């Protein structure tokens, strides 16, 4: 970390009363954020360090499509970028719903420092060691979603952050990542204009039936590495929530498919089916009955959309960011995508993928591609 940023961090911590804390850096992830675990007189906390110039800017709530394109991918895809104030606003919203987002102890959003509650180390990904506890944890995670989905998505996250719509422009920009980044890595060539246009148009048609349904709060990255098990808390508060700054207003299906088609760990189809059934039952308890057949189609569409996006993101992390370990996840993601595309409503997209990307091109060794 540059000396001036280190000095700014220490100044922030001193003002927050944590200047004498012990520092333990945390492993990095796929973002530009970093976390430092703090310990002061046996009291833990976590420092989020997000340089405000590290990512492309985001769009205001009323930005036009052309304005979003001018600002770049974060604005087009409705990502929070380096906006720490959005993380804080989402955290407050989740805590107001009785959920275990980290408490905010102190913040300097302008300079990109947030001091938050340390929810511990019990990530779902680490705790899931046997079938019995796996079932219990996944059902608990589903109950969190039902709590969130029991009311419509808020238009505003106080004091001043709009919960952006997960609109067609954002969803199509995400699937465009596959043609932009996976093609060169896997096929050794750029996708041509006709391939890109056909892919985008097929996705536009597949998504269209679900873009006008009443939106709910969507975490957007709801999976076992962003959930923590807090067994000493009660009910839905037993599930700790992190990495939620990119939240949007969108489909009920999105976070559920993120949970049960986890890019980083295998989730048995039977567990996914049990989690989905529990979600539908819990939504009924909250007073919202969903048609099972229609919801299954919505899940298939958003699962396929998410997995297509992830293929592109992991190829980008390899090609642009020099992180080859993400290629090891591609066989799992493609297996999910292949299963999603079996839904009759996605037959045209299945034909495109079968024609454009042959099976033996879908797994790339960590040394590179074609």
What would your notes on this structure say?
With 370 residues, the protein is of the alpha+beta class. The strands form 4 sheets. A 5-stranded antiparallel beta sheet has the order 1-2-3-5-4, sandwiched between helices. Strands 6-7 form a two-stranded antiparallel sheet. β1 and β2 form a beta hairpin. The two termini are 36 Å apart. The model has no long low-confidence stretch (mean pLDDT 93).
What is the gist of this entry?
With 370 residues, the chain is α+β, with helices and mostly antiparallel strands. 46% of the residues lie in helices and 12% in strands.
What separation lies between the terminal Cα atoms? 36 Å
User: Which sequence of strands runs across the widest sheet?
Assistant: 1-2-3-5-4
Tally of individual domains: 2
* Rounded average pLDDT: 93
Tally of separate helices: 13
CATH superfamily of the largest domain: Aminoglycoside phosphotransferase (APH), C-terminal lobe
> H/E element string?
HEEEHHHEEHHEEHHEEEEHHHHH
Helix content: 40-55%
Task: Tell me the CATH topology of the largest domain.
Answer: Aminoglycoside 3'-phosphotransferase, Chain: A, domain 2
């Amino acid at each position: 970390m540059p000396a001036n940023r280190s000095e700014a961090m220490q100044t922030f911590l001193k003002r927050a009363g944590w200047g004498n804390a012990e520092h333990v850096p945390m492993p990095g992830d796929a973002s530009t954020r970093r976390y430092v675990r703090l310990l002061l007189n046996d009291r833990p906390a976590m420092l989020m360090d997000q340089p405000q110039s590290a990512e492309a800017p985001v769009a205001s709530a009323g930005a036009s499509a052309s304005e979003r394109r001018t600002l770049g991918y974060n604005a087009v895809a409705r990502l929070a970028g380096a906006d720490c104030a959005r993380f804080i606003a989402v955290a407050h919203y989740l805590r107001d719903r009785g959920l275990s987002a980290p408490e905010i102890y102190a913040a300097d959003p302008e300079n990109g420092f947030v001091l938050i509650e340390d929810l511990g180390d019990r990530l779902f990904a680490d705790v899931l060691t046997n079938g019995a506890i796996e079932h219990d944890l996944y059902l608990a995670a589903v109950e969190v979603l039902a709590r969130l989905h029991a009311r419509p998505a808020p238009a505003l996250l106080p004091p001043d952050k709009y919960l952006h719509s997960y609109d067609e422009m954002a969803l199509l920009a995400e699937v465009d990542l596959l043609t932009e980044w996976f093609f060169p890595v896997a096929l050794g060539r750029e996708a041509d204009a006709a391939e890109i246009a056909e892919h985008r148009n097929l996705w536009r048609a597949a998504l269209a039936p679900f873009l006008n349904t009443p939106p709910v709060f969507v975490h957007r990255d709801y999976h076992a590495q962003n959930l923590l098990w807090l067994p000493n808390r009660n009910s839905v508060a037993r599930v700790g929530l992190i990495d939620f700054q990119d939240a949007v207003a969108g489909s009920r299906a999105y976070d559920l498919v993120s949970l049960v088609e986890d890019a980083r760990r295998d989730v048995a189809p039977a567990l996914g089916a049990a989690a989905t059934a529990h979600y539908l039952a819990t939504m009924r308890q909250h007073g919202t009955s969903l048609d099972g057949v229609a919801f299954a189609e919505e899940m298939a569409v958003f699962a396929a959309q998410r997995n297509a996006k992830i293929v592109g993101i992991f190829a980008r992390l390899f090609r642009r960011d020099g992180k080859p370990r993400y290629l090891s996840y591609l066989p799992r993601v493609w297996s999910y995508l292949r299963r999603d595309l079996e839904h009759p409503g996605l037959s045209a997209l299945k034909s495109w993928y079968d024609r454009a990307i042959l099976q033996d091109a879908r797994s790339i060794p960590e040394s590179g591609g074609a």
